[in-house]
Amino acid sequence: MPRTPFLAGCAATALMVCSAEAQADGWSATSPEASSCYPADLLFASSSYGSYTFNNDVWAPCQGVAAGKQTIWAKSNVDWGVSSKQPDTGHIKSYPHIGYAVNKPLSSLNSLTAVVSSTTPYGGAWESTFDIWAGNNAHEIMVWLNYTGLPDGCGNVKPISANWTFSGCAIPIQKDVPLSGGTWNVYVGSNGRNTVYSFLRTTKTDHTTLDVLAFMNYLKSRNYFDDVVLGEVQYGFEITSSPSGLSFASKNFAVTTE
User: Fold this and answer.
1) What is the model's pLDDT at position 25?
2) pLDDT digit string (tens) for 123-138?
3) 144: nearest Cα among 206, 231, 221, 225
4) Is residue 7 part of a domain?
5) Taking the mean position of all CA atoms in its chain, how far away is CA 206?
6) Is residue 229 part of a domain?
């Protein structure tokens, strides 16, 4: 789904501790209920820790969709999470995430690996997903690890797709693709800004070591792009509905490149 590219800097507020040094004691930011882009410094509150960045990324209000209260917190790239209370409506509200900037052409990378171990809740409507950007954000590659919908493109969260069944399920371009130790159903569509490629793991998991280049090379082999520059590798929780409030946590996140 489209993300507002705005990244707020550190705001002068008691809700936020903005330096990497201070983050050793913990950083957090809380955004209130909102139906517009205000207050942007809290909706898109961001901070950094070494080579990693965090963003609250409550982008729905900037698209005219009301969002609920959300608090992101982080101690380091291997210990962060979010509590979110989003209304039970059918639009994605936020994507609280961690990011790592690669900014290298695919041909210059021998390996690119991302590790994550997470805690996800029962109920609600959400997906735990990587969001990988390439070609100056013309290409968005989403890798769904765990989610409340179904691998066949049905359920209460669905991937972007160019084709749909009469019953409203997304139609994959290919099923059961073996990549990076799992099998994936693959969907392709557009959000109006960029092409979105979604890989839905057929066996859901909260723990993985992801071979990012395997997904990029799969798409390259099908001529969706050539030697594009891989921008940022993000991981987080895309939240549609959590009316009673839900908590998510991410452990051990790290990206390594060669």
Assistant:
1) 75
2) 999 999 999 999 999 9
3) 206
4) no
5) 14
6) yes
On whether the CB atoms of residues 95 and 87 are closer than 8 A, the answer is no
Which residues lie closer than 8 Å to 60 by C-beta, 6 or more apart? 66, 67, 91, 92, 93, 94
pLDDT tier at 6, thresholds 50, 70, 90: very low
- Is residue 16 situated within a structural domain? no
Tell me the pLDDT band of 49, cut-offs 50, 70 and 90: very high
Q: Give the domain range for residue 77.
A: 22-257
Residue 133 lies in a domain: yes
Q: pTM of this prediction?
A: 0.91
**CATH number reported for the structural domain that contains residue 107 in this entry:** 2.60.120.180
Domain count of the fold of the chain: 1
DSSP string over 158-191: ----S-B-TTS-B--SEEEEEETTEEEEEEEEE-
Amino acid at 131: D
